[in-house]
Design a protein that fits this description.
102 residues, mainly alpha, 434 Repressor (Amino-terminal Domain), elongated
C-alpha cells in the first residue's frame, strides 16, 4: 500500500511542477498546508477519496491521471510531459481501433 501512495504522490508532484505552482499554492487550492502537500508527495500522508477530485481540479488534470496502475506497473505515458499525454492517448486509442478493424 505504501508504494501506491508513493506513486500517487509522485504523480501529484509531477502535475504540480508541470503546472508551475509550488507546494504552498497547491495547498491553498485544496485546503491543506504546505507540509501536508510535501508529505502527500512523498507518500507519507494519505488523502480522503474526495480529495482526489480537489487535487485533480487544482492541478487541471483528470482524476485518473493521478492514480497509479492497480498492478503497480508504470504507465509509459507517465514519461511524457503532461501537455503531450492527451495527444498520445488519442493516437494510441485510434491505433487500437484500427487494429480491431484489420
Amino acid at each position: 500500500m505504501d508504494e501506491f501512495y508513493e506513486a500517487f504522490g509522485d504523480r501529484v508532484r509531477r502535475a504540480r511542477a508541470a503546472l508551475g505552482v509550488n507546494q504552498q499554492e497547491l495547498g491553498n487550492a485544496v485546503g491543506l498546508n504546505r507540509t501536508s502537500i510535501s508529505n502527500i508527495e512523498k507518500g507519507r500522508q494519505r488523502i480522503a477519496l474526495h480529495m482526489l477530485f480537489e487535487f485533480a481540479a487544482a492541478l487541471r488534470v483528470e482524476p485518473e491521471s493521478l492514480l497509479p496502475s492497480p498492478d503497480g506497473r508504470s504507465d509509459v505515458l507517465d514519461e511524457l510531459p503532461e501537455d503531450a499525454r492527451g495527444w498520445a492517448q488519442d493516437v494510441l486509442a485510434n491505433a487500437q481501433k484500427e487494429e480491431g478493424r484489420g
